[in-house]
Amino acid sequence: MRLLVAAVGRLKPGPERDLAVRYRERAAQLGRGLGFTACDIAEIPESRARRAPDRAAEEGAAILAHAAAGAVLAVYDERGRADLTSETIATRIGGWRDAGRSVLVLAIGGADGLDAVVRDRSDLALSFGAATLPHGLVRVLALEQVYRTLTILAGHPYHRGNLDER
After folding, report:
1. Residue 28 to residues 33, 51, 54, 89, 97: CA-CA distances in angstroms?
2. Partner residues linked to 106 by β-bridges
3. Cα angle, residue 10 at apex, residues 122 and 92 outer, rounded to 5°
4. Of the candidates 22, 142, 155, 166, which lies 20 to 30 Å from 53 by C-alpha distance?
């Protein structure tokens, strides 16, 4: 399974970009031994459309171009689920991999959010909570969760989970 973070906008050089690269590289390295062929980032240019619905639709079409038939599409959206544990997410991703799904696209929308067509097509909608976060931080958090998912699937000690359950 190929992992792809499709994010609207470009990260400028700085700490967010450095962290995103760090987690992407860690995930790519660990993922190879777990049946994940790659961990890539597709930066989608922000739309120049003047109206918000038109911008979101244009950006959404670009996101969907990365989610061909058979691809799993998970989106980060303010209406998404914030209640899923990292273990639950890892179990879902591992299940998709084991079912032979070829690509998992994690989509992060632009300033106007995700187009309804993208949300409707998604297999899973996630949220980092009710607060509005800068896109650069969302990308870092998404890539960290990809890496965390892979460590959970590998039984690696990076993820310690809920210590009360041990």
Report:
1. 9, 37, 34, 18, 15
2. 5, 74
3. 30
4. 142
What pTM value is reported for the model? 0.91
The CA-to-CA distance between both ends of the chain, in Å, stands at: 31
Q: What is the pLDDT of residue 162?
A: 56
Query: How many whole angstroms separate alpha carbon 48 and alpha carbon 46?
Result: 6
> Can you read off the two tokens belonging to residue 32?
């190879």
Q: Is the pLDDT of residue 166 over 90?
A: no
Q: Which residues contact 164 (CB under 8 A, 6 or more apart)?
A: none
The total number of residues shown for the chain amounts to 166
Specify the residue for token string 């619905």.
53
Spatial distance between the Cα atoms of 12 and 2, rounded to a whole number of angstroms:
25
* % of the chain surpassing 90 pLDDT: 78
User: Hey, how many other C-beta atoms are within 10 angstroms of the C-beta on 134?
Assistant: 9
Q: At 113, is the secondary structure helix, strand, or coil?
A: strand
Q: Distance (Å, rounded) from C-alpha 105 to C-alpha 66?
A: 7
Written as six digits, the tokens of 24 are: 């992407």
Residue 121 near residue 61, CB atoms below 8 Å: no
Average pLDDT along the chain: 92
Dump pLDDT digits (tens) for 11-21: 999 999 999 99
Angstrom distance (rounded) from CA 21 to CA 98: 27
